[in-house]
Amino acid sequence: MRFRCLAALSVVLCSAIAFGQTTRPNQLKVGDPAPALAVESWAQGTSIPAFEPGKVYVLEFWATWCGPCIAAMPHLTELAKQYEGKATFIGVNVLERGESEDPPVTARQQVDAFLKGNPGRMGYDVAVDGAAGKMWETWGRASGQRGIPCSFVIDRQGKIAWIGHPMRLDPVIEGVVNNTGFDVAKYEEEVKQKAAAKQAALSSVRRALRNRDYPAVLEAVAKVEKETPEYAPDTAGPKLIALIDTDPDAAVALIRQDIADKNQRNLSTYGFLANDLEDAPKEVYLASIDGLLALVRPEDKSGLSDTYIIVAGIYSKIKDHSSAVKYARLAVQNAKDANASASKLKQYQRLADNYEEAAALSRTK
What we know:
This protein is of the alpha/beta class. It has helices at 8-11, 67-82, 107-117, 134-141, 170-178, 184-210, 214-227, 236-246, 248-261, 264-276, 282-294, 304-317, 321-337, 342-364, and strands at residues 41-44, 56-62, 87-93, 125-128, 150-154, 160-164. The chain contains 14 helices and 6 strands.
């Protein structure tokens, strides 16, 4: 079995174990006074000139191009609603890339387009760092962050209570808001221990996958499913790869079962793999397409074009050129409807043009 990109072999195992390992030496740390709230503008909600003593704040650093940031937004919206009146949530847009486009697109324009195309996704205040990048410099870089998303919790004394991934916010915000004595060091140590346990449980799966010993992959996956079922979701990708090689019918059945179970995480993984695999059976590609399309929610504009363009690419692999063109056109149209950046539109249009050319060539043969 061949992969177009060897990185797919490593991506199929969950990267969440690295949550606590994404920083570098820093000057800004937990316990320090929070830097100034020096944003360029406010795109949504209440304009907040400065942090007020006695109030709790959550700053979430994000960008319109950042898939994990977008994925975390519904959770942040739920937390903002849960702690309404007790904590103020602010999405701080940083690191936008549109300034170098031709014509240039400001960060504010990109944020406004994102909010318009994704109504209700960000149920909290939204600020824009802008071209100066003061917020990312004084918060992100100063605390050693290598990327986004990244959250900061500011306590009632105006000090940083926690820095980390937004999907780990729940116990932090509960402890800070309710004054239950949240222990940052203890929590981070627990995260490290869980990550180590997870890595140990999945090591045999990873090793067999790297060696492309697919019977051994299935044996290792079965062991994880039996002994540490909490980590079983992280074996979906390796299991599919191994089944494609050893029992293609079972691979298709696995995808179909997850479609029936509406397992969004697994279906997304299968779609990624199908887009990268070069010589899988046609039935696997078709099942993966059905899985991706089962994820589609028309009201969720943020990732719709990406899904459609992946579907187009998979159809192209199996020489179904008319379907490839259909979904590439849908990707372009959705990007326009969602007010996507000029670079995104150009990317989708280029791919659509490529599929159109392939379709035309196939008709002449």
